[in-house]
Amino acid sequence: MMATAAQATDTDFIRRGIEVADLNAVRIALYHNSRDAQVAELPPVAQMTAAQKALLIDRATSWLGDNAGPAVLPEPPEDDLRALMTMATGQEMTDLEFEARRDLAAFRPFPCAVEWPGERPTIPDDFRVVIIGSGPAGIVAGVQMELLGIPYILLERQGEAGGTWTINRYPDVRVDTPSITYEYSFEKLYPWSEYFNRGEAVRDYLQHVSRKYGVMANSRFNHDVQGAAFDQARNVWTVDVATPQGDERIEANVVITACGTFANAQLPDIEGVEGFGGQIVHPSAWPEGLDLTGKRVAVIGNGSTGVQLLSAVAAQAAHVTVVQRTPQWISPREKYGAPIEPELAWLCENLPGYWNWSRYTATAGLFDIHNLQRVDPAWQAQGGQVSKANDDLRAFLTDYIRRETGGRDDLIEKLIPDYAPMSRRPVVDNGWYRALTRDNVDLLTGSVARFTPTGFVMADGTACDADIVIAATGFDVLKYLWPARYRGLGGKDLHDMWDAGDGPRAYLSMMVPQFPNFFMLYGPNSQPLTGGTGLPQWWLIWASYAAQCVMRMLAEGKGRVDVKPAAFDRYNRELDAEAANWLQMTPEGGIEKNYYVNRQHRRLQVNAPWLSPDYHRMCTVVDWDDLDIS
Length: 630
What we know:
The structure is a single chain. By secondary structure, this protein is an alpha/beta fold. The strands form 8 sheets. The chain has a 5-stranded parallel β-sheet with strand order 3-2-1-7-19, with helices on one face. Mean pLDDT is about 95; it is low at about 1-5. It has 20 helices and 25 strands. The termini are far apart. It is about 35% helix and about 15% strand.
């Protein structure tokens, strides 16, 4: 959304833009440009008085009145950049924290990506990387290969780029983190229309990036990878692909899988489901043109998807029954569902550096979020439940439930979880609590015992008739890379190996011994529990790690890179030890009902337990002693 040039001369317009903006980002950007001593003396916004905020708004309005205009600021010298980052938070950083956060503001053209340190070596004519999946991770892996000039093809089973944003088209689907943090750091100043953008807008964005950076031209859609095997005599992978023209076999020196965690829908596996006479819909396969008007609808599940779609479904259907097996901590988000104001769109374009610093300040509040996810025995000894910070959050969210339900005790007692906040994935409210108070919405708690021809019966015997059942039951997050089969050295099958052990494991979430030249993006134990760095940044960090390995192979004329078994074992021992320190692995964190956890083997499965700066270093500074290159 763009503002006109005429509006730029309107002081009131400028002031309105500043007032709706992130004032912390305004403060840093204004000082970055003006070096105004009065601005430098202001504290972070959370600590400002009303008079200090008014001063900041006045100074910014005045400066923009004289200096507004589009300009791209280069990355400041390191000392200055660090001083500005410290100014943004009011807290000093360690060197490790600085390295992990310096690219959040995205001043460099391609933050987090790697490039050849000198002249690019000669790449053999037959050398090729195969990337599997054209979701956000696969696209960024393609961009990284483009930067290095390494030949690649991208294989995608859907008919277009977008990954989960292609398959999920249910009502009101959108990102639940601010759009400015759910974007690639190399695509500057993308004109989002909402603070939290809808699925269609995110899909358009991903396809725009894929086209702009050359990835689309190297993509093959409707190509469904069935499996791959490593030919150790030739150091190549043979990838078997189902295509509209028939089966095809493609050879690759390196395979990068970017299938994501949310690729395999988890459908109800409940007695009698085949005999249900109505329609069962998983949100990842929402039928085009599905009409809910006058229908009796049941929504099974209250995770992020079930919470997002309920209000829209309840507005259409005659009646909705919500089935809640486990209560969730559901939280508000400021400006969720709101459009970006024209004044703010203008400010992003005309206050140089504002976009950069708004990216930084949008995540800075999460730098220390690990404090919410640690049990404090001293606090518990005083009668607390987890820690002061976590218990304060519990009180806030409990009060939010009471407010949003209008104080209805019949709902409140069913909606308050018996585990601590932050131990499961936070769910963003999209009017879910309020929807439960509608006359045409009922809430059932517990699990579905069996389906009947006309509906289903709950475990407590309550019967529910339904024309349409929306199975917002999520995805099987333990089925990494499923259903494709991968065979490494000696024909070893990756899924069989994981099944024989304690579930999917990897080194740095990316590599598995005896599977050379094979990298996973968003693999087991990948997404950090803390730190503020958004997933789009991690996708590029992981892609750059794989790229560094490929670069060294090419520079040295080697054909194989593999992680050493001893390094793999050491890493996972340390990972399990670190995971034990987190709330997710405790009774207070609801270990028995947490999809972050592999409950069969009682270990953290989805997330990386490291503090973000530590994990960032592991994934950006390759420990070559842990790898075999031959």
